Amino acid sequence: MAFDKLNSSDFKYIGTRPDRPDGVDKVTGRANYGADAYAAGMLHGAMVRSPHAHARIIRIDGSRALALAGVKAVVTRADFAEDVEGEYWNVLDNVMAGERALYHGHAVAAVAATSSLIAREAVALVDVEYEVLPHVTDVDEAMQPDAPVIREGQVSTSVPAGLSPNVVGYYEHGHGDLDAGFAEADLIIERHFTVEAAHQGYIEPHACLAQLGPDGRGELWCCTQGQWFDQKFCAALLGIETSALKVTASEIGGGFGGKTTQFIEPVALALSRKTNRPVKVVMNRSEVFKASGPTSSSSMDVKIGMTNDGRISAAQGTYRLQGGAFPGAWAMLTAQCAFAPYQINHVKTTGYDVMCNRPKVAAYRAPGSPIAAFSTESVIDELCNRLRLDPMEVRLKNAAREGTRSSYGPIYPKIGLVDCLEAAKAHPHWTSPLKEGHGRGISCGFWFNFGMETSVNLMLSEDGSIQITVGTPDIGGSRASIALMAAEELGIPYENIRVNIADTASLGFNEMSHGSRVTFACGLATVEAARDATDKLCARAAAKWGISEEAVKWRDGCAIPAGSNAGEFDPLPIEEIAGRMGRTGGPISGHHSVTPDGAGPSFAVHIVDSEVDPETGKTEITRYTVVQDAGRAIHPSYVEGQYQGGAAQGIGWALNEEYIYDEQGRLQNDGFLDYRIPVASDLPMIDTVIVETPNPGHPYGVRGVGETSICPPLAAIANSVSNAAGVRLTHLPMSPPRILKAMKERLG
Amino acid sequence: MRYHRPETFEEAVRLAAGAPGVTRFLLGGTDVLVQLRSGMVTPDVMIDLKGIPGISKVMRTEDGGWCIGAAVPGSKLGANADLVADWPGVVEGIELVGSTQIQSRATLTGNLCNASPAADGVPGLVAASATATVVGPHGSRIARVEDIPTGPGSTSLEPGEVISGINLPRRGENGGDAYLRFIPRSEMDIAVVGCAVNLRLDGDAVVEARVVLGAVAPTVLVLPDAAELLVGTALGEGELEKLAAAASAACKPISDKRGTIEFRTEVAGVLAKRAAKIAYSRAKG
After folding, report:
1. B148-164 pLDDT per residue, tens
2. Domain count along chain A
3. Domain co-membership, A88 together with A221
4. Contact in structure between A353 and A366 (CB atoms under 8 Å)
5. Which residues in chain B touch residue A679, judged by CB atoms under 8 angstroms apart?
């Protein structure tokens, strides 16, 4: 689809900053989140979880729990469907262990009781007999031929022979001749990098209310990024028809990719089916850390060759990511993203998906890309330092642009990386003097962005106001953006448009709110649905005026004659057509269903200043600037919010966030005290620059912005801190003990 | 679980002495309620002391010292300008605990009785030679603060004994104290290492010193030898380096999720130097 409007001056509503429609509900507590669902006769469910990293389940005896007053049911794997395969089986085995518990915190049984206190008490009364098995939680150890095997038979056909059965996926990308490329280089640097696993850290723990009757029909209310996926996965795991289950998404207190799969929902449904009562399950924070879907931890090797004038002549990377106890780490995406910002003639990347005794990973904001940028951009920074080259100029020299063949294959359409680099170079931050003992770092970042299945309904009310029904939970201000795009098309005030999130029974299928796709794909479908409606509105005016439909056009909320030869008629406002629509042809609505291509990659450049305490290794981020291409910023405040949010999460991951396991494979820091996300006072004001290089794939030029913002921070902060500390830091997070140790080793 | 809200210490002592199973005293509840909710402890008896008259008061004693009631929250200590002027190091210790909300509940006595080696409120008290008034079945006694915790989560208090308040000595002239802790974040965190220093000067020279470390051993460590290094000096760079070396040498830390032995040992010395400098400048006035 070609875009229709190129200049911001063409817009009346796009680019303005009205209050978000869901804001009052959220600040007054009126909004209903996952745990706010209640039903008459509701029971409370709770999980029995493995205290071991890896153990065979010998026996589960729920009789002592069932003897406790108020306990209504105990469910185990036997209460789920048996004939499930592929990713459905993976999700089933993750939400309820079968023969073996595969990680510390893995659910092995669940109880339902009349109160949450009784349910908790009952959990302790479920007797589980385990045979503890050898375990492995480190990705490099899990790849060794003699490592404990998580599960045989999971290896994809592409994996080279001779590796542990834990290596389940293998990916290669690139082009050119590496030997020739490295031969052109004046300096080659190769480094090994390690990044520990991080959690999305969303505020709202997973919560749901489930009802499933003996007739096989049910309802589920849950906190999710994609209700249709909960519907199809839960139905498959319970052995019922997809359409027999209706799923309603609650408001969502953060997801970042972590709410794109199921953890408690199928179990709540199983408990409900067994008791014939509604069952509510709410995870506590410890359960969220232990048994939801954090990121991979990873081990990477990157080698880059550069000429004396700063051209990257060749690049090679190897990426090993553990995905927990199931296939599905994101090594393919890491391998694809690693050199995506650059035009490189000779490039090759290799990715390995590895299983180990940790929770099954889920997506976290541009999964695989932040660690890719960390490894690539660290080596580029070191090359620039050694060759005494300006790191911004080197990136400009090598930057991918329209027509560049990307390192992962496709030829880029119009992209905004050079625009971002130019904007970063012109920003006062880049030229500001640096204090003694401070360091500065920059990094580029890349994310693909996605379109995917999308349906939108738009309904006209009799007073001329509009209701829009979308199927994408609002995780980042999308109601506001969708309403703005509809306001622009319809030419009516933003306040006259209400955007609702549909349940699975009320709209055609929608892919989840992920992949930075909602403002792009849902926005595109909204624009088309609005045009569908304005065509119908124009037809009513044409009928009233007795002229042809082609002779009427829509402007500023009114039907008007398309030209002077169409006749002289007063503009016919939307309210008038709406008030009479029942008598002039019936209700008016617009609809659009689409799987749009052309999501258009978004690139970013981050600039970071930091100060490191030489005696303690403690880092302070002193200045931070985000420059990113939004294509078109529909609601600039929420675009800026995404930029700042990605930077804030990146600061946490770069400096302190990590999963820490003990020698028995038990998670040591299952709470926000010792899993250290940044507090407000840890962050500087994060400055933002919105670059607009319109995406030809969207009618207004929109590109997704949600994920790219977390791609550069790990690298930009590592470069900044390394330059401040005087030593290259290759292990994230750069916690004070790691920095202090590296500084002391440098000094000998 | 049985919940009691006694109105006198005698009643509290009687209830505690006769209580079956696990007893917990409730002051601000910032440790007890968290432990309860996380399932770490399920008390059989909960004795809420906040109904006892006077327990939430800060009072200047006749000899010029201070008596801080057991239920006085951190925010009230921070708001007491005279107390802050006398013992800034003690007050900054408790004020580092948690958020503003936690500050309105968390108490020095609770921080002490929770017996965490990383308690921010305790090193400052020990450096100030503070005591606790302990009420028990056999009357009341005065105990040194450093003698209350005996290890992580355990205290020297006998069954039925309750702390009614903390006593700080008269500050006197030319004194200053300070507390510093190391955390990876800027706030809302738990000490990886803590250090309190309390000094008295005569002119430029130190005449009395106490140096105390937290989070580097099962209980706070009092470092008389390190303190002795400072006496008679004006805290020159040489003395500060010796102090750092002595503090590091005295550490008996563990490696855990919050820090390594190597890191804690190193940073204990750094904090000792920095806290000593602050205490010195406060003593100079």
Report:
1. 999 999 999 999 999 99
2. 3
3. yes
4. no
5. 185-188
The domain tally of chain B equals 2
Q: Is A618 within 8 Å of B184 when comparing Cβ atoms?
A: yes
Range of the domain at A285: 42-133+203-254+259-291
Q: Between chains, do A668 and B267 touch, taking CB under 8 Å as contact?
A: no
Test A668 with B257 for CB contact under 8 angstroms.
yes
- Distance between B211 CA and the closest CA of chain A, angstroms: 20
The position carrying tokens 């004020």 is: B95
Question: Are B60 and B185 part of one and the same domain?
Answer: no
Is the Cβ–Cβ distance between A444 and A691 less than 8 Å? no
Give the confidence band of A4 by pLDDT, cuts at 50, 70, 90: low
Q: Are residues B28 and B137 in the same domain?
A: yes
pLDDT digits (tens, 9 = 90+) for A604-663: 999 999 999 999 999 999 999 999 999 999 999 999 999 999 999 999 999 999 999 999
Same domain, B135 and B41: yes
Task: Give the CATH number of the domain where residue A652 resides.
Answer: 3.30.365.10
Quick one: pLDDT band at residue A17, thresholds 50, 70, 90?
A: very high
CB contact under 8 A, A669 and B257: yes
Contacts of B189 in chain A (CB under 8 A): 673, 676
Predicted-complex ipTM score: 0.95
Coil/strand/helix, residue B210: strand
Q: Give the Cα separation of A558 and A600 in Å (integer).
A: 33
Summarised one tens digit per residue, pLDDT across range A658-703 is 999 999 999 999 999 999 999 999 999 999 999 999 999 999 999 9
Given B185, B262, B270, which is nearest A682 (Cβ)? B185
Output the pTM of the full model: 0.97
Secondary structure E strands in chain B: 2-4, 23-26, 45-48, 58-60, 66-69, 131-136, 139-144, 149-151, 154-155, 162-168, 175-182, 193-202, 205-214, 221-222
Domain that holds residue B7: 2-168
Q: Kindly report the CATH number assigned to the domain that includes residue A120.
A: 3.90.1170.50
Distance CA B151, CA B115 (A): 7
Specify if A141 maps to a domain: no
Domain end point (choices B123, B142, B168): B168
Q: At what angle do helices A227-238 and A265-275 cross, to 10 degrees?
A: 50
Q: A726 at the B interface (CB within 8 A)?
A: no
Q: What is the pLDDT of residues A443-469, one digit of tens each?
A: 999 999 999 999 999 999 999 999 999
The answer to whether residues A495 and A568 belong to one domain is: yes
Q: Which residue of A has its CA nearest to B269?
A: A615
Residue-wise pLDDT for B254-275, tens only, equals 999 999 999 999 999 999 999 9
Domain final position from A561, A594, A627:
A594
Substitution target from B240, B261, B263 for chain A, most A beta carbons within 10 A:
B263
A364: phi then psi, degrees, rounded to nearest 5: -135, 105
CA distances from B92 to A294, B28, B95, B103 (A): 37, 18, 5, 12
Which residues of chain B have a CB within 8 Å of the CB of A676? 184-185, 189
Whether A578 is in a domain gets the answer yes
Is the Cβ of A745 closer than 8 Å to some Cβ of chain B? no
Residues making up chain A, counted from first to last: 748
Domain annotation covers residue A276: yes
B189 CB within 8 Å of a chain A CB: yes
B150 and B27 within one domain? yes
